[in-house]
Each structure stands twice: as structure tokens, then as C-alpha cells.
Amino acid sequence: MTASSTGxxxxxxxxxxxxxxxxxxxxxxxxxxxxxxGQRPPRRPRHRMVTLLIVVLLIAIxxxxxxxxxxxxxxxxxxxxxDAALDNLTWDxxxxxxxxxxxxxxxxxxxxxxxxxxxxxxxxxxxxxFRTTDKKLGTFLKEVGTERAKLEDGRVTITDKQAAEVGWRxxxxxxxxxxxxxxRSKSTPELNITVDTTAKDRPRVYVVSTVxxxxx
Length: 216
Fold this sequence. Notes:
5 helices; Sugar kinase; disordered N terminus; elongated; membrane; single chain
């Protein structure tokens, strides 16, 4: 009976491949079905994972750049507004004529002096900032026509609109201020004086002097 014949109890038997031996006589492992048919075993689709990763990166990276670009653009806009305001200041002493017209007698030896003048049909104004000593601050207020006792602690007398013209910022954390408003007479400039008293021995003074034109 051959290998393809029926078994003892009539059960068909599966044809088996004859055992192949090596040159040394040792039996060789039987070949698998794919080997017998000449086909290679299936491979895992790794290229799909790579493709998916590339798609995710192509979506995520541009989105990240958009968010970053929007943030940078916003910051840049804010900085440009601030720089434009600071550009209005001239880092030098106002002329003697300006100091006389606007009644701003700067103390000798002042540092960090800057000013800005604005003119319109109805008003003209001079913004001045400077740093001086505590003693010379008293002298400055006296020459203006007022006195240190008139300074009110915690008061900023320069309006937000006036401050925005030159990029001044008040009420910063850790800073203390005092201020006053003064006018000698109706025909003289209106003075808004705010003093940053954080450094007691070197106060920083901010002045906005406004001249209003009146008709005959």
C-alpha cells in the first residue's frame, strides 16, 4: 500500500513528503507550505506607520508655527506701540525758552532728563521727566510755587492719556508715588507733577505742563 492509501480504520491519511537527509546523514527540517509553494512569508506593513507619522507631522508642525506666529505678532505689535510712544521723547534738556514758557525749572545736576512738546490750536503741552536728589526736589517744588507738603501719597496726577503719549507707566508693582496739581494763576501753565518716591534719595519726577490759549 502506498503513502496515499487509506489507513487501518478507513481513515484517509495525509501524504507526507519523504524525509530528506543532509550529506552527513542527518534529517533536514520539513519545508513549510509557503516554502513548498515558492512564496515568501507576508511582511508587516511598516510603511503604513511611517506614512501615518509623516501625515501627523505635516499637520502638527504648521499648526504649531501658526500659533507661534500669532503670539509673536501680538507681542511685536505691543512692542511697536510702546517703542513709538518712547520715540516721542527727546533724551535731552528742554531749551531755556521751553522751561520758561511752561514753568518747569529743572534742578541743576538732574539726570535721565527727557522731554516732549505737543502743540494744537487750543493747547500746548510739555512732558518732562528727570531724576534728582531729595533735597533738590524740594527746591524744584519751591521754585514752581508750591511745596513738598502738597504732595499727596499714592496719588498719580498725570492722566492715562497724557502718559500714553510718551509711554509712561505708573502704578507699577513695588513702586510708590505721590503727586500734586498746581497753577499759579489762570494765565499760567497747569502743572501735573507725579513723583516716583521708590528711591527716597533719588526720586524720579514726571511733569506735564499745559498752556491753554484763550481768545481776547
